[in-house]
Predict the structure.
Amino acid sequence: MAAEGACAIDLNADTGEGFGRYRMGPDVELLALVTSANVACGFHAGDPRVMDATVAVAAQRGVVVGAHVSYPDLVGFGRRHLAVSSEELVTDVLYQVGALDGICRRHGTAVRYVKPHGALYNDLAADEALARALADAVRSYDRSLAVLTLPGSRAADVLAGTGVAVKLEGFPDRSYAADGSLVARRHEGAVLTTPGEIAERGVRMALGRPIASVTGSPVRVRADTLCVHSDTPGAPAIAAALREALEEAGVTLRPFA
């Protein structure tokens, strides 16, 4: 994990969230800036054509591919809580990872990690049963796969306890509460859009320094990887500013997987 004086961190982006071969949105620009790509697997966004197009660009540019798995919620973009059983989550995750990995093989690469999306990501933070189901799915598919999750979450503890490699994720383009949790998107100011501000927060996270919470109190966000959301307005400019600021601060960008 990154700490004061750390010299390397991963930079990831959520990608593959369009539909159709040519609807990649800002992904082409983002894939020139990040070191890891969380590719939507068709449950919250994306389809086989855009998955294939996204992986092709990632492989060409040496970007590591991760499966961005979700509840089956295309209508809600995966941001609605769905009550699923542990068995349903296991099979849904296996389905998504396997589909993306098949496309990766076509392009000479492979799925190297798993990142839950949206509501699933948030639910896992406090739901031990869901976290164990996710661990079951990941270990059943490939024990070498890492999982991205929030620092300090129940999911991080449960996953690590099952032997799954856990990578902690920081969100410089999101606001944090004083307890280190993310401010819900429904609240004003939850999503940040100013490149300079986001870049400064990302550098502080990478170097293990505190950032300001929404209350103004300092909060320290431990992170192995920093995320840029592709659906944030101006995402490529944000990623470029963040990358430049990290490099100027002496932080090396490299994939964790």
Summary: Residues 1-6 have pLDDT under 50 and may be disordered. The beta strands are 8-15, 36-40, 64-69, 111-116, 146-149, 165-170, 211-212, 218-219, 225-228, 252-253. DSSP finds eight helices and ten strands in the chain. The two ends are 13 Å apart (CA to CA).
